[in-house]
Design a protein that fits this description.
Length: about 120
């Protein structure tokens, strides 16, 4: 067995579905940021449903990221559910006129579309 010292085998670090992975990670980070902003907001009590959906969306996006990074065969099934949660979260955020909620709505709805396309 020959071994050349000083060389390292090159492993392909390209993650399958890297574009979707970045979209899902961005959605998760956006939702987490919104949660941080809203929990101390003056009308946090009135936004309980939004905060809960933001938590659910961030959690499902975290799991979706892991599945995509692993390349598991269950990714497409989870993407269907992730699309549903992101769409629900995005629709809820869209009901609030503040710029942060509107930005979050766009991010979640975009993620929902990407996950739905991947699931097909």
């Amino acid at each position: 067995m020959s071994h050349t010292y000083g060389t390292t085998p090159h492993l392909h670090s390209q993650v399958p579905y890297e574009h979707l992975l970045k979209t899902v990670q961005h959605c998760e980070a956006t939702c987490e940021h919104m949660i941080s902003m809203l929990v101390n907001h003056e009308d946090a009590f009135m936004r309980r449903q939004q905060i809960q959906l933001l938590r659910d969306c961030a959690d499902i996006c975290t799991l979706m990221s892991k599945y995509l990074a692993r390349g598991t065969q269950l990714s497409k099934s989870l993407a269907q559910y992730c699309s549903y949660v992101c769409e629900l979260c995005g629709s809820t955020c869209a009901q609030f006129p503040d710029p942060h909620s509107q930005n979050c709505a766009q991010t979640c709805l975009h993620c929902a579309q990407e996950c739905k396309a991947f699931a097909l």
